[in-house]
Design goal:
With 413 residues, the chain is of the alpha+beta class. The protein is built from 15 helices and 14 strands.
């Protein structure tokens, strides 16, 4: 394998099922820059962590000067709305995230996520009960995909009777996150996504207006009502934040649950331990975030001045790729990194990023996945993979199976 081929091999769909040998090769050249105008690719844990905390590295695409093709360019997460704080730098990022955090967790709402535990458990039970007499299921379509949407609807305060409509809008929008979507020749694809974006925006705007007049005990009401030191969010900023949580939070959780079950089925000893001890789910999920992170690469980073990493000068305006999944298996950071080990004591992974852009929805995704995997382990009798490897999504950034067909002998009550 030559270094000159690595950049393209990482994005090649043929390697989606197992990119880890490529990442291992990538770490031999910690700062890889193969093509004129192309990205600088980082794979060392310590380099990635430092860059995620470096104020000279921007998340705002307006700072990008590199002209080369970016095969990991993703669709707009909020189309037509202002950028979410995910794609902003301080001080605007800090203002919006501070308000969003106050509505989402401690110290203002310390129980917001944990209070959803009962709803999450009931949703998981309902989805598993829905398998009925079937002895083979697609975990993605029948479980991992619908579960996070239901939870986010509860969190935002979407009335239960509106959830089916909400899901119908989410599907085409999530599809636009795939880099391949920009090459989709079907005009109906773009039309459906645009219509869904418009309908979702109008629906949420109506809900925000309603919450302005009659606040409820939900996240949307808090976003409308919250005031940071720099003032409140505008209506458009509230909508942008709600859509960020919905779209970005959905895909990562689907992948975390699906990659998690796939990993457990490949490690039946851990699956059996989880079946006997649901409390193990906390350790299992943390190790999954290291071993099979739902976000493999952070491609939206740009230098705002010349910087030097390992003796390599990276010019202002360059595009950076931070390969989180390679850093998570860096032997300079983790002992025996290719082994899935929930008993691992040192678990300071990059699965949710790090620094000011660390995953906003991490507490929610953790709890969802803990409940999902512990219940699947308990209730599915003798589960096994119908095919291995399963078919994967095209997306190299949000990497996960498109389908995960599982065969089992029955359901425990």
């Amino acid at each position: 394998m030559t270094h000159t081929s690595l950049f393209r091999q990482i994005t090649d769909f043929a390697n989606r099922a197992n990119p880890y040998p490529l990442y291992e090769e990538l770490r031999k050249t910690p700062v890889l820059h193969e093509e004129e105008g192309g990205p600088y690719v980082f794979s060392s844990y310590y380099d990635i962590e430092a860059l995620l905390h470096d104020p000279r590295v921007s998340s705002d695409a307006a700072n990008l000067a590199a002209s080369g093709e970016d095969p990991l360019a993703q669709g707009e997460e909020t189309g037509g709305l202002p950028p979410s704080f995910l794609r902003l730098d301080p001080p605007e990022h800090d203002r919006l995230r501070r308000i969003a955090n106050s509505a989402f967790g401690p110290p203002h709402r310390p129980r917001r996520v944990d209070d959803l535990r009962g709803d999450m458990a009931a949703t998981v039970k309902g989805l598993i009960d829905g398998f009925g007499e079937a002895r083979q299921i697609d975990l993605v379509d029948q479980f991992a995909y619908p579960f996070p949407v239901t939870v986010i609807c509860r969190l935002l305060g979407v009335p239960r009777e509106d959830e089916p409509r909400f899901r119908a809008w989410v599907d085409p929008l999530v599809a636009t996150l795939d880099p391949e979507s920009s090459q989709n020749p079907d005009p109906e694809f773009a039309k459906k996504a645009q219509e869904a974006r418009m309908q979702l925006g109008m629906y949420l705007a109506g809900l925000v207006e309603q919450r302005t007049k009659e606040p409820q005990d939900d996240l949307l009401s808090d976003l409308v009502d919250s005031h940071g030191p720099e003032g409140a969010m505008t209506m458009m900023e509230v909508l942008s934040t709600a859509v960020l949580l919905l779209i970005a939070g959905h895909e990562t959780t689907v992948n975390l649950i699906t990659n998690g079950m796939l990993t457990l089925l490949r490690h039946p000893d851990v699956l059996q331990r989880l079946r006997q001890d649901p409390g193990l789910s906390v350790r299992v999920v943390e190790e999954l975030l290291r071993y099979e992170p739902p976000v493999q690469i952070v491609p939206q980073r740009t230098t705002i001045t010349d910087i030097e990493v390992r003796g390599v000068t990276i010019p202002k305006g360059a595009r950076l790729w931070l390969v989180l999944a390679a850093g998570n298996r860096d032997p300079e950071r983790f002992k025996d990194p290719q082994r899935f080990d929930p008993d691992r004591e040192d678990l300071q992974h990059l699965g949710f990023g790090s620094g000011i852009h660390s995953c906003f929805g991490a507490p929610l995704a953790r709890l969802e996945t803990q409940i999902a995997l512990s219940e699947l382990a308990r209730r599915l009798e003798n589960p096994r993979l119908a095919e291995d490897p399963p078919p994967y999504r095209q997306n190299a950034v949000l990497r996960g199976p498109r389908h995960l067909n599982i065969v089992f002998d029955g359901l425990n009550p």
